[in-house]
Amino acid sequence: MFEQAGARDSRSALTDWLLRGAIAAAFAMFGAEKFTDQWVKLFGQIGIGQWFRYFTGAVEVLGGVLVLVPQTVTAGLALLACTMASASLIWVFLLGQPANAIVTGAFCIGLVLFWLNRRGR
């Protein structure tokens, strides 16, 4: 009986680490892309300046790193969810392309659901 409970906890911990690793890898990649020239035109359309592209990239990489550290998972998830919510708002209101907000909105919802699932433990 005790062995089963321990096995369930270890699978849950492994799943948590795998999901956190996937989130960290994805956002490290997304953030690093912001430092390349492929995002210059889009951030130019936003109209705030190219510093915002670098800031966004740094925030995404930082959020990914925070998700990996057990003591800062919540902060990392909150940072990334807010970033994705902001991206959705920018797609809708500044760029006038609401269909593109679906992806960033889905990421935001996924991050929040992951946080809620972790919080229940």
Summarize the structure.
With 121 residues, the protein is mainly α. It has one domain. 81% of the residues lie in helices and 0% in strands.
Residue stretches low in confidence (pLDDT < 50, at least 5 long) are: 1-7
Order of helices and strands: HHHHH
- Number of E-state strands: 0
Largest sheet: none
Radius of gyration: 17 Å
Give the strand content: under 5%
Arithmetic mean pLDDT: 92
Structural category is mainly alpha
Put simply, the count of helices is: 5
Number of domains: 1
Distance between the termini: 20 Å
Helix content: over 70%
Spatial shape: elongated
Report on the structure:
The radius of gyration is 17 Å and the shape is elongated. α1 runs antiparallel to α3 (51-68) and α3 packs antiparallel against α4. Helix content is 81%, strand content 0%. The chain has one domain (2-119). The protein starts with a helix and ends with a helix. The chain has helices spanning 2-33, 40-46, 51-68, 73-94, 101-119. The protein is mainly α and 121 residues long. The longest helix has 32 residues, at 2-33. 23% of the residues are buried. The protein contains five helices and no strands.
Main traits of this protein?
single chain; 121 residues; mainly alpha; 5 helices; 0% strand; disordered N terminus
Which secondary structure elements does this structure contain, and how are they paired or packed?
Blueprint: H1 2-33, H2 40-46, H3 51-68, H4 73-94, H5 101-119
